[in-house]
Amino acid sequence: MSSLPNSHEALLRNRDLLAGTVGLLGVTDPSVLPLVGDHGLAMSEHAGVYSALSGVPGWQSCFGYDDPGLQHAILDTIVVFLPKARAELDFRLALALWLARAGARLILVGEKKEGIAGAVKQLRARLPDAGKVDSARHCQVWSAEVEAPSHQFELADWITWTSIEHAGVSIEVAGMPGVFSLGELDEGTALLLDTLAREPVRASRVLDFACGAGVIGSWLQGWQRQADLATSTVDGLDVQSQAVICARATYRRNGCTGDIQASDGLSGVQGKWPAIVTNPPFHTGVRTDTSMTERFLREVASHLEPGGELRLVANSFLPYGELIQRHVGTAERLEQTRRFTVYRAFRR
């Protein structure tokens, strides 16, 4: 039990609160499920965690906020783990209240360093009688009764649209709580797009790894159409449910082509591409975490056609140049600023 996240251990200290049909929203460690009970519902928006949840007997696993297993008023106890992005908490609470039966208990668990104090204000805005039941493992546990379930939870109500213009190309981008760079074009992606305009990728099919809301693929196809060039099909992969939902919506809105899929890295992906582009993540919550990108760089060559191009933007302080050199080919710096570097390499 000592290897469990603090929030999961804090929940286990209060397992006497878990009655009837239990749902865990935002669970991050599947090993907690058998310790909670022999059945229930567990939701994660992370493709890798969801895959692991699917292997726990007796538990119904759900991927993200649009999983068909999420049904109205089916739970007696709903545990909401504090998400990394505070904007996502209202989203998760709205889902919890829709899943709750009349008289259900809603439990909010989170670490102090993750902002549980502020999260409690969001909880009490919906359930004013919520009270603290425990403080342990650097976490707080809050509980409230749901007198009546919410009658509506529509995914479309949580999607926002932002117009992004770069290098003369405008696209409409879908956003949802928790999605990277919500409502703006981040500096690293902008630098990558600059290089795509100046030094175009010569490929009929491109893979956008960690595609987020589909900005790179939509912009690239828009730029190609505007320049009267052949339009590449841009497939997308992302680990997060909301990103996949948004990227598909962004592609539909902008008339783009490409297959958007959920995937935790490349290990479960079939096929090779003549080009792969990426602005990969390097944070897990508030911590710097380059493990996903390092794994990607170890595996990416097997998904590039011979001579195929990798183009990657990353914070300049991250040591990706030598990893690209080791696993793909000669790493060329196409663009470098104080904060970001765009690398290009061709599979040797």
Describe this structure in words.
- The chain is α/β, with parallel strands linked by helices and 348 residues long.
- It folds into 2 domains: 6-155, Rossmann fold (3-Layer(aba) Sandwich); 159-346, Rossmann fold, CATH 3.40.50.150.
- Helix content is 28%, strand content 31%.
- It contains 10 helices and 18 strands.
- The protein has helices spanning 6-12, 33-36, 47-53, 87-99, 116-126, 187-198, 215-226, 241-254, 291-299, 320-327; strands spanning 22-25, 40-44, 59-63, 75-81, 100-111, 131-136, 139-146, 160-166, 169-175, 205-209, 233-238, 260-262, 273-278, 283-284, 287-288, 304-315, 332-336, 340-346.
- A 7-stranded mixed beta sheet has the order 3-2-1-4-5-7-6. A 7-stranded mixed beta sheet has the order 12-11-10-13-16-18-17, with helices on both faces. Strands 8-9 form a two-stranded antiparallel sheet.
- Strand 4, helix 4 and strand 5 (100-111) form a beta-alpha-beta unit.
- The N and C termini lie far apart (46 Å).
Largest sheet, strands/sense/barrel: 7 strands, mixed
* Overall mean pLDDT: 94
CATH-defined architecture of the largest domain: 3-Layer(aba) Sandwich
Order of helices and strands: HEHEHEEHEHEEEEHEHEHEEEEHEHEE
Which regions are unreliable across 5 or more consecutive residues at pLDDT < 50?
283-287
Distance between the termini: 46 Å
Identify the CATH class of the largest domain.
Alpha Beta
Overall body shape: elongated
Assess the beta-strand content as a share of residues: 25-35%
- Which strand order do you get reading across the main beta sheet? 3-2-1-4-5-7-6
* CATH homologous superfamily classification of the largest domain: Vaccinia Virus protein VP39
Report the C-alpha radius of gyration, rounded.
Answer: 22 Å
